[in-house]
Each structure stands twice: as C-alpha cells, then as structure tokens.
Write a structure and sequence with these properties.
There is one protein chain. With about 725 residues, this protein is an alpha+beta fold. Helices cover about 25% and strands about 25% of the residues. The radius of gyration is 27 Å and the shape is globular. The structure holds dioxothiomolybdenum(VI) ion. Dioxothiomolybdenum(VI) ion binds next to loops.
Length: about 725
C-alpha cells in the first residue's frame, strides 16, 4: 500500500482552478434553445386557466407548456430518487413557487421576458404555512426509510423509568427549514435523437436520473444517457431527480431542439427540496450515578402535501444507538404544510436529531452535576443496543480523549458564566457526532494499455469531495502504478453502474469496485505471463508475481505489459467488476464517530456570539487521502456553524412564499465567521466495514456542531437555547 492515504493534490484540481472543468450548463450543444420556469404565486388551490396571448406574441418564443398542453408522462417505475410532481400533469397548486408552466425561446432573455408575461388564473385556498398550527394532525410516515424499518422503535419502558429518574430533562427542540445552496445551480441540457435522450445535468446520481427519465418518458434506460463530469456542490439537493430535469427533457421533445434549463438562485429555494423544519420532544432521565435510564425522542418533521411524495427526517436514529440505556423510545411523525417536498440535506436526520439529542444530554449532565464529557463516557455504548450487534469498529473513546486533550477540556470550569476573557463571557461546549456507514453495489471497468497507462471508468460522481482523486489512488496502488498514469473517468451513465453520491457512501461503494476491477487486471496479467508460450514462466509460483504498473515482475525477471500484449496482438487488456456488500452488514453495526469541542465568546451586553475555537476528532475508518479528507472535515464543520448560528429559510405566514430566496438574506458562514479549526482523524485501520475500511466522512463532521455551540452558549451565559439558529435576541433575556 503506497499512495492510498497520501495527501496528494486533487487530480482534477488544475482543471477546476483554470475553469476548464466543464459543468452541466457549459456543454456547447449546437442549436440549443432556452427554457424558463413560471412559478405559482399562490400557496394553495388550483389553476383555473392561462392567458398566454401576450407571452406568445413576444419575439423568439417557441413553446409555452402548461398543464393544459403538456405531454402526458408515463411515470412507471423509477427509484427512490425519482420526484414525480409537480410536472405539469394537473392543475393543483400545492405550494407557492410551484412550477406551473415552462416557456421556451431562442435566447434566455427572450424566454425570461415571455415567462414574465404568462398570466395564470387561480382559485386560491388558504395555505397551511406553519407546522405548529397543524401539529395535532401529525401522521406516521407511510414509507419510512424506504420501508427498511418502522418509523417507531422501543426497548424497555422509557416512560416508567423516566418517573423514577434522579435527574430529568423534558424539553422541546426546534430546527428550522434550511436550503442547500450549492454554488452551482441545478442545470440541465436535454437533447433528443429520435427516441434516444441525452442529458447533461448537475446531479449526485446519474444512474437515478437515467432511471427516472426512462420511467417518465416510457423509455428503456439504455436509451437515456446522463452526463455529469463535475458537480458544483449538492449537499443532498442534487440527490434526487427533481422536476426541472424532467421538464427540460419534456420541453426538448415539444420544440424538437436541444433545450437548456438553468434554475435561478431564487428558484433553488422552490425546486429541489430543503431540510424540513423539526419539532423534537425529548424526555431523558439518569439515575443518581449519572447512568442513563430513560430516553424518549418524539420527532415531528415538516412535510409537503402528500401528492408530492414523502420524506421523513429521521431525527431519532442516533438516539437509539449512541448511548448505553435500557429504556429507549423513538417516534417519527410528519406534519403536512403547503411547502415543496423536503429532502435529504447533509447528514439528514443526524444533523437535526443530534442538536436535540446532544443538547438534552448536556442538560442531563448539568442536572446530574457532572462534566458533560464524563457523563458521555459513563454512558458509552460498547455495542449497538438498538440493533443488538457489535460494531465493526468504534474509536469514539479515542475521539473523546484526543479531542479533549487538544482542546484543553480538563481546564473547563463547571459553572455557567464562570469563564471570562476580559469583558467577554467564554463558554466551552462539546457534542458527540455519528453517521452510519452505508454501502451499495457498484461496478468498475479498467483498461490497461500498451503505453503503460490505465483508464478506469465508473458511472459515479465527484460532488466536490475528491472521487476522481481517491479512486485514482486506489487504482494506482492496486496496479502498482504511478497515480499520474491513471486516468479516472466518471459522470457518464455509459460507464459501469454506481449508486447515488449521497449518504456518505461513495468511497465505501465505489472504492471496492475499483479495487476488484484492478485486482482482476492483476490476475489477468499474471495469467498472460504464466501462459505466454514465448516466456518460460509456466510453473512459476503465482504468489511470487507482482504487478508494477507497466510490467509483471517474477522470479525469472521482468516482462513489460506491452510485450505481453504484443505477443497476443492486443492493444489493451480490459477487466471489470461488479461488487456487493457482504455478510458484514448482517453481523455488525457500522458507524463513523466523532467528538466536537467548541469555544464561544459572548458579549454580555450585546448578546453577540462568536465561535472562537473548534477542535474536532473523528473516527472515519481508513482514510484514502489525508488532504481531501481534511478538506471534507473543515467544510462539514463550517456547514455545522451555519446550522448553529445563521441558516434559516423564512416563509411568509400568509402566502407561504420563501422571503429570503437569495444568498444575501439566507445567511451562510463567511470567512469572518469561521475561527481556527483543528480537525483530526483518529487511527482506525479496521477492514471489516468494507474492503477499504472507509467509513464515509462527507456528512459526519457537521453532526454535533450545532449542539456543541448551543452547549457552549449555555456554559458562557447560563441561557439554554433550544431553537436553531441561535440568535442574539435569544440571549437578551
Ligand atoms: Mo447527502 S444529504 O446524503 O447528499
């Protein structure tokens, strides 16, 4: 093992910083015309008609597609990434900003102009804009976690043990609606060639997009090609195939030309999901020794109206497994509002749920008069008590110890408002982080040429995380080659199938596929060497052979791959793989872990909160590239800071319209908000979780940040804030 783990630069870094990496909207497709979406201006009700005369008479207009003339979609099949509405198939309005028409014109400006002139007549109804007003109508998800488990779980009797506890917490925590805000907006170019559809689109899952479009238009998936070599961020909003992708393909079919549809920044708040608002009611109790005896976590998350689909934020899943506790109950309920369909957003469930869980644990530590870290160590779970399985590995204790040491946690004073720096109140807070380790089947293809280079192809994505780079490293190590001789290609559904880049599972899924295809290459070259009549290698012990890039090395010397190929009159050797997770999923619980330690400074007069220091330690399993991994950790922590202090989508209570649909008023952390961050990875070389031992670190590092900030704010001020984002006004009490 040579280059795996090394902090090499991104292999696509130069292309990106020089602007030569081509993103979906940048492909030059001859004859392309432009589509613009028209959106509902009411929050509920139905369309009664359109007045298109003015729009149709503006220059350059090629088509105006409305529910009254839109082609009917087949909508058979699909995947969990398929979003089936609103697709101009009926006149119902479910939320403000819903797409109600698509205007196609020869230029973007003309399409935008005509779109502004489309007049829609509505029968308006009163939209439900607040969860709180309809909380009593909460319902159980019909298809929680895509049916892989029930929405509720219970072990022991948490209600009985709650009353018997020596220390209790009974509190409600609230997290807001948030939007993903990737730099690159959703963008699609769709082109039909008879019954074959090609789309260039910004997506975290080309295979899901292929399946979705095939199902929408009644095509065989082999007639749909999806291309996406680069993604300018996704964070979950490009995980599903949202209506604008389908509408672009529909528009291209209607006008008989390739169509480009790029969302505006404002449309990014109404077209591709959001992190739903949650209301979480927690009742925790500990005995007089600080042992958890009861945990109940009742989660309510915001949903759209049912015809748009279903998404339940799984806020209680970490509560089931993070601590040692005999009595635990978790419930998940949905609250329908007139909003778009919510979706996965970085660390779905875990991020929102952890704010409640790790705030309540802090509150219980305070009630038990214990240090928050000591409280967590006392309740350390050696096994997954929900699944009743051992962990493939769990280095959380090392995360606690190394993080606390680097932070200087032992110097923390216990009482709130007891640490000051000049006039500033200083607070130290911590939280545990976890994210499940997922893996799905994946496949890969390798072609080794006589020129000593290898082409590796997988139909996966690089969403900015480093897939190109780390997969090149896996191939280079396995083939015994310099990484510069590996050409790794992804982002084309013509390549071997891979899953969506979501759930932090790309390395764990695609890595083993690349490894297996390269191992098959090694075996094939050894066979060629041993079978080669012109060599006298037959009878040589296979185990004594090595592949060193462009040559096979054996006890009898070195035979260049080019020579093996020429003996067989071939230009290249090709191998492939198709790998699935094995028995390990049945036998072990698999999670990544971490510990966040955060210092805040609060101005006692103004309530201003500054995060001044962060130390975080993570168990991400085996790390394939120390540099891209560190970048992920820092990025995730900054994402967590946004959740803690800044991010919130505001919806007007009367109209149901998003009122801060721009990155000026939707607050995100900027450099001035981000302090010195120390993020380390504890050693864990376990290879049980998957053949590369990678646990996934895309989402893990943001989990726990919000709770650690809230816990630090409590320590600084004595004020417990149970609602995100934490604002100045929360402290001026
Ligand atoms: Mo992630 S929210 O699983 O793209």
């Amino acid at each position: 093992m040579g280059i795996i783990g090394q902090p090499i630069d991104r292999v696509d870094g130069r292309l990106k910083v020089t602007g030569r990496a081509k993103y979906a909207a940048e492909f030059a497709v001859p004859g392309v015309v432009h589509a613009v979406l028209v959106q509902s201006t009411i929050g509920a009700g139905s369309i009664t008609g359109f007045d298109l005369s003015e729009a149709q008479s503006t220059p350059g207009v090629l088509a105006i597609i409305t529910p009254q003339n839109a082609p009917k979609l087949t909508m058979k099949g699909g995947t969990q990434q398929t979003v089936r509405a609103p697709l101009l198939q009926d006149m119902a309005i479910y939320y403000n900003g819903q797409h109600v028409a698509v205007v196609v014109a020869d230029t973007l400006e003309r399409a935008s102009d005509a779109a502004a002139r489309v007049k829609v007549r509505y029968q308006a109804a009163e939209p439900v804009t607040s969860m709180d007003a309809v909380l009593d109508q909460a319902y159980m998800p019909k298809n929680f976690r895509n049916g892989e488990r029930p929405a509720d779980s219970q072990r022991g009797n948490p209600d009985l043990s709650f009353s018997a506890g020596a220390a209790n917490v009974d509190a409600t925590y609230i997290t807001p609606m948030e939007h993903h805000n990737p730099m690159e907006p959703h963008a699609t170019i769709a082109q039909w060639d008879a019954d074959r559809l090609t789309v260039w689109t910004a997506t975290q899952g080309i295979s899901g997009t292929q399946t979705t479009l095939a199902s929408m238009f009644g095509l065989d998936p082999s007639n749909v090609r999806v291309i996406c070599p680069y993604v300018g961020g996704g964070f979950g909003c490009k995980g599903s195939t949202w209506p604008p992708v389908t509408l672009a393909a529909m528009a291209a079919k209607v006008v008989g030309k390739p169509v480009k549809l790029v969302l505006t920044r404002a449309q990014m708040y109404t077209s591709n999901g959001y992190r739903p608002r949650t209301i979480q009611k927690l009742r925790f109790a500990a005995d007089d020794q600080g042992h958890l005896v009861s945990m109940r976590h009742d989660g309510f998350s915001q949903m759209s109206q049912a015809p748009l689909g279903e998404f339940a934020e799984p806020v209680g899943l970490a509560t089931e497994m993070l601590y040692d506790c005999p009595n635990v109950a978790v419930t998940h309920r949905l609250v329908a509002t007139n909003a778009g369909l919510p979706t996965y957003m970085r660390a779905p469930g875990l991020a929102s749920g952890n704010f409640a869980l790790e705030s309540a644990i802090d509150e219980l530590a305070v009630a038990s008069r214990m240090d928050p870290l000591e409280f967590r160590l006392r309740n350390y779970a050696e096994t997954d008590e929900h699944l009743d399985k051992p962990y493939a590995s769990k280095a959380l204790r090392a995360c606690y110890q190394q993080g606390a040491e680097l932070f200087g946690w032992s110097r923390r004073s216990h009482e709130p408002r007891s640490m000051r720096d000049g006039n500033m109140l200083t607070g130290w807070g911590m939280a545990t982080s976890t994210y499940p380790t997922h893996r799905l089947p994946a496949s890969a293809r390798v072609r080794l040429g006589a020129d000593g280079t290898a082409l590796v192809q997988v139909g996966t994505q690089d969403i900015g995380t480093g897939t190109y780079t780390v997969m090149s490293q896996v191939a280079a190590d396995t083939l015994g080659m310099d990484v510069r001789r590996i050409q790794f290609e992804l982002g084309d559904s013509a390549y071997p199938h891979a899953p969506v880049s979501g759930g932090s599972m790309t390395v764990a899924s695609v890595g083993p596929a690349v490894l297996a295809a390269c191992q098959a290459m090694r075996d094939k070259l050894f066979d060629m060497a041993l079978d080669d009549q012109r060599l006298s290698w037959s009878g040589t012990d296979r185990a004594s052979l090595q592949l060193r890039g462009e040559a096979v090395i054996g006890p009898k010397g070195r035979i260049p791959v080019a020579e093996l190929l020429s003996h067989q009159r071939q230009d290249f050797v090709e191998t492939s793989s198709n790998v699935k997770p094995g028995e390990e999923e049945k036998r072990y619980a698999m999670h990544a872990f971490g510990a966040q330690f955060i210092e805040v400074r609060v101005d006692p007069d103004l309530g201003e909160i500054r995060v001044s220091r962060i130390v975080a330690a993570f168990d991400g399993g085996r790390i394939l590239n120390a540099k891209t991994a560190h970048s992920q950790l820092i990025g995730g922590i900054v994402f967590g800071l946004g959740m803690a202090l800044l991010e919130e989508t505001h919806v007007d209570g009367e109209t149901g319209r998003v009122v801060n649909a721009n990155v000026a008023e939707y607050l995100l952390p900027v450099n001035a908000d981000v302090p010195d961050i120390t993020a380390i990875l504890v050693k864990n070389d376990e290879l049980v979780s998957n053949p590369l031992g990678a646990k996934g670190i895309g989402e893990l590092p943001m989990v726990g940040v919000a709770a650690a900030v809230a816990n630090a704010v409590y320590h600084a001020t004595g004020v417990r804030v149970r609602k995100l984002p934490i604002r100045i006004e929360d402290l001026l009490v």
